[in-house]
């Protein structure tokens, strides 16, 4: 177990070590300074030319949002039709059929919004064409959308008073050519050299040593796995994601894939510090996030390494922890770290089955997605955290009896209203969805859907409730992991989570950008002795308190019915 | 909206070519140099492919080291875990049945020594490995079945145990397929 704990610590340490210079680099890229990656500039100019874009054209926050939403709509329409007709499109060596319209609706939205909830299994539910031309493509562009949205926020924070916030297309294209594509290429090549398939060869059939005949799914997996880790996408090539021995062949690849989950989200915090030249603010944000992240990791590692109490009662040995749903080459500690990394960042990939986590670990994973701002999804994590900052500034302002200000701009009713609405949106979507599905299970168990409500849950009692709670939480957080026992490929889940996905993605982008845009348009007030300092440790504690209070008030009852009740039932 | 729709469509098309066309082809080309040429690394025994190095397979015969239980019977056309919650009574009954089966096939083993990983299903259903403890506990049975001294098999297990990465990171493991091939080659 010592080697497993050391592995976890080294993995996290390496991620921080790499994130620091990467953050500096990202800030340089978006400031337009010289970097090593300038050799990409001709490619970018070609892309702009072919697309008819003028990257110097300045946009205000509303124009940014229009561009963002328009291109997202284009992707959705394209993805939907490609998924429905994939059976007749090329690159389908295994002869997989097209998706049903409700599944294609869910899948298209899910990948457009960077969530990657998957109500199908990659081996049979997609073709090589849709794996690459829909899924992997959307994994790049949805991540780039998040980064571009964040850069708009950073531009708004940087300037004293302005409406000129740069060009959306430029931010978006550079996110791909300067950050996502180079990093993905490196990771994909490392994976390929460690045994992850990367060719276009179809399923293989072999006779095993014992004489059984089995097939082995393969395909162009390495490139897609790289971007799904780096872009906080999470949708796996194979059904079980990075628990699959071809998707994540060794402890080394597992370390790299874990680092890739949190690398860009952490780097973006440092990038914020360099970009707006307020390193103390970045350090404060990083500190608050890290306190919670490390607390959550420690809890999950403790409970997974300790094992399942119900198995202990059967009288057998659990020296390497709770191993249901886990892989030997990865071990319980690395799976626990991953469970927090993936739920903190809205990644949603898994390297073990979350449905089989012990109760407290499963509950912490859900809570982590409810907060959804510890490092967070690429770009959008900081946007979510920005909302918590605004709320904390507002409450602090009330406490000291002054008009609240953030970075030289007065925070007034309009901005606070937006922040409050965005904060309330998550509990509304999660709890209403869970209540509705629980109602269907109890009162309409025989509803005529592809999977009847009576057969939705893979586990009885408290855990069955957690399966539904997890699904809506994951959809709202645009996370994409699941308690995968849930029978979710039917019209009820495909449609309801589809709408939660859209609202949970775009409102939390629109809200913060609107606030930032409005603030940036206001008169700049130079800081004085009476100004609330937002980069101090005291203010960090204030934000921490806001995060804890908001989430505890909103979610404790639901968590008590699921994971907490299950925990006490197992003692 | 009108101002943005045409750039959006055109940018989408060129990015599809770059990210879904060029990028994976480039990876596939580089992967030609990797072991297995990007098709997955196969394991050959007496000139015949008997499996993939990283993908587990079923071993139920007493003369082989058993693999961990699998929710998909090691058919790597798909993949899957049991997704059973820790307190599910039906699940615990399945685990109990696996313990009973193991004890019946391995007389002399104490229940308290059975490592849980040997009676719980992996996440992928394709776990290629055993923990060293889960291999060691099967040694007496295999020695008996193959009429070989336990010490020889113990040596073999030791030889095929892969320690932590760089000696200090992560768990130790034994690849079941490679161990069983070596077992067949023992004379």
From TrEMBL, chain A:
Keywords: Cell membrane, Ion transport, Membrane, Potassium, Potassium transport, Transmembrane, Transmembrane helix, Transport. Belongs to the KdpA family. It is a multi-pass membrane protein. GO terms for cellular component: plasma membrane. The keyword Ion transport applies. This is Potassium-transporting ATPase potassium-binding subunit. InterPro entries: KdpA (IPR004623). It comes from Chitinophaga japonensis (Flexibacter japonensis). Pfam families: KdpA (PF03814). The chain crosses the membrane at residues 6-27, 65-85, 128-154, 175-193, 258-277, 284-303, 373-398, 418-442, 491-519, 539-561. Coiled coil: none annotated. It is found in: Cell membrane. The system is composed of three essential subunits: KdpA, KdpB and KdpC. Part of the high-affinity ATP-driven potassium transport (or Kdp) system, which catalyzes the hydrolysis of ATP coupled with the electrogenic transport of potassium into the cytoplasm. This subunit binds the extracellular potassium ions and delivers the ions to the membrane domain of KdpB through an intramembrane tunnel. The keyword Cell wall biogenesis/degradation does not apply. GO terms for molecular function: P-type potassium transmembrane transporter activity; potassium ion binding.
UniProtKB/TrEMBL annotation, chain B:
Coiled coil: none annotated. GO terms for molecular function: ATP binding; P-type potassium transmembrane transporter activity. InterPro entries: KdpC. Its main location: membrane. It is a single-pass membrane protein. One of its GO terms (cellular component) is plasma membrane. It comes from the Bacteria. Pfam families: KdpC. It is found in: Cell membrane. Keywords: ATP-binding, Cell membrane, Ion transport, Membrane, Nucleotide-binding, Potassium, Potassium transport, Transmembrane, Transmembrane helix, Transport. Belongs to the KdpC family. Part of the high-affinity ATP-driven potassium transport (or Kdp) system, which catalyzes the hydrolysis of ATP coupled with the electrogenic transport of potassium into the cytoplasm. This subunit acts as a catalytic chaperone that increases the ATP-binding affinity of the ATP-hydrolyzing subunit KdpB by the formation of a transient KdpB/KdpC/ATP ternary complex. The system is composed of three essential subunits: KdpA, KdpB and KdpC. This is Potassium-transporting ATPase KdpC subunit. It comes from Chitinophaga japonensis. The lineage of its organism: Bacteria, Pseudomonadati, Bacteroidota, Chitinophagia, Chitinophagales.
């Amino acid at each position: 177990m010592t080697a497993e704990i050391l592995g976890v610590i080294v993995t996290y340490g390496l991620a921080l070590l790499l994130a620091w210079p990467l953050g500096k680099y990202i800030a340089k890229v978006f400031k337009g300074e010289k970097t090593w990656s300038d050799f990409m500039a001709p490619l970018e100019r070609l892309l702009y030319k072919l697309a008819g874009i003028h990257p110097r054209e300045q946009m205000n926050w509303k124009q940014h949002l229009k561009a963002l939403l328009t291109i997202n709509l284009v992707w959705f329409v394209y993805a939907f039709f490609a998924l429905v007709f994939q059976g007749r499109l090329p690159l389908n060596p295994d002869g997989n059929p097209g998706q049903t319209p409700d599944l294609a609706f869910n899948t298209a939205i899910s990948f457009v919004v960077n969530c990657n909830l998957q109500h199908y299994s990659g081996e049979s539910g997609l073709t090589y064409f849709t794996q690459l031309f829909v899924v992997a493509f959307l994994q790049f562009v949805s991540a780039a959308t998040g980064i571009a949205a964040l850069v708009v926020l950073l531009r708004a924070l940087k300037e004293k008073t302005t409406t000129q916030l740069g060009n959306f297309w430029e931010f978006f294209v550079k996110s791909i050519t300067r950050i996502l594509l180079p990093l993905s290429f490196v990771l994909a090549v490392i994976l390929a050299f460690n045994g992850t398939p990367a060719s276009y060869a179809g399923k293989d059939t072999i006779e095993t040593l014992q004489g059984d005949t089995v097939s082995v799914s393969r395909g162009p997996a390495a490139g897609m796995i790289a971007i799904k880790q780096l872009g906080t996408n999470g949708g796996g090539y194979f059904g079980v994601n990075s628990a699959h021995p071809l998707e994540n062949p060794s402890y080394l690849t597992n370390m790299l894939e874990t680092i890739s989950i949190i690398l860009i989200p952490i780097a973006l915090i440092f990038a914020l510090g360099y970009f707006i030249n307020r390193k103390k603010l970045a350090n404060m944000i990083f500190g608050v996030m890290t306190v919670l992240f490390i607390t959550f990791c420690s809890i999950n590692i403790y409970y997974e390494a300790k094992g399942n109490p119900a198995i202990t009662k059967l009288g057998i040995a659990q020296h390497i922890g709770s191993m249901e749903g886990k892989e030997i080459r990865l071990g319980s500690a690395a799976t626990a770290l991953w469970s927090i990394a993936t739920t903190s960042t809205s990644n949603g990939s898994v390297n073990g089955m979350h449905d089989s986590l012990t109760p407290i670990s499963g509950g912490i994973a859900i809570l982590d997605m409810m907060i959804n701002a510890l490092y967070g999804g690429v770009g959008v994590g900081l946007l979510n955290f920005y909302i918590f900052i605004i709320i904390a500034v507002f409450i602090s302002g009330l406490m000291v009896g002054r008009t609240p200000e953030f970075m030289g701009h007065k925070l007034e009713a309009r901005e606070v209203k937006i922040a409050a609405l965005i904060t309330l949106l998550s509990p509304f979507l999660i709890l209403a969805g869970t209540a509705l599905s629980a109602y269907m299970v109890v009162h309409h168990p025989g509803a005529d859907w592809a999977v009847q409500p009576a057969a939705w849950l893979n586990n009885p009692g408290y855990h069955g409730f957690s399966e539904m709670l997890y699904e809506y939480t994951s959809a709202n957080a645009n996370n994409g992991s699941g308690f995968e026992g849930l029978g979710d490929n039917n019209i009820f889940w495909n449609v309801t989570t589809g709408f939660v996905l859209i609202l949970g993605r775009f409102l939390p982008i629109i809200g913060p950008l609107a606030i930032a845009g409005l603030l940036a348009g206001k008169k700049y007030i130079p800081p004085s002795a009476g100004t609330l300092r937002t980069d101090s440790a005291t203010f960090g504690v204030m934000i921490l308190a806001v995060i804890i209070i908001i989430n505890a008030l909103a979610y404790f009852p639901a968590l008590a019915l699921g994971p907490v009740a299950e925990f006490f039932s197992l003692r | 909206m009108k101002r943005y729709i045409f750039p959006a469509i055109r940018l989408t098309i060129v990015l599809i070519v770059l990210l879904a066309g060029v990028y994976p082809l480039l990876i596939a080309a580089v992967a030609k140099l990797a072991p297995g040429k990007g098709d997955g690394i196969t394991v050959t025994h007496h000139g015949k492919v008997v499996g993939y190095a990283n993908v587990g397979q079923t071993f139920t015969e007493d003369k082989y080291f058993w693999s961990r239980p699998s929710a998909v019977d090691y058919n790597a056309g798909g993949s899957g875990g049991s997704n059973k919650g820790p307190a599910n009574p039906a699940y615990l009954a399945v685990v109990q049945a696996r313990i009973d089966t193991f004890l019946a096939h391995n007389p002399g083993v104490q229940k308290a020594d059975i490592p849980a990983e040997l009676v719980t299903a992996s996440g992928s259903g394709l776990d290629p490995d055993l923990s060293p403890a889960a291999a060691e506990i099967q040694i007496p049975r295999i020695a008996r079945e193959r009429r070989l001294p336990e010490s020889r098999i113990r040596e073999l297990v030791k030889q095929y145990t892969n320690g932590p990465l760089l000696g200090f990171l992560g768990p130790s493991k034994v690849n079941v397929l490679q161990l069983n091939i070596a077992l067949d080659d023992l004379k």
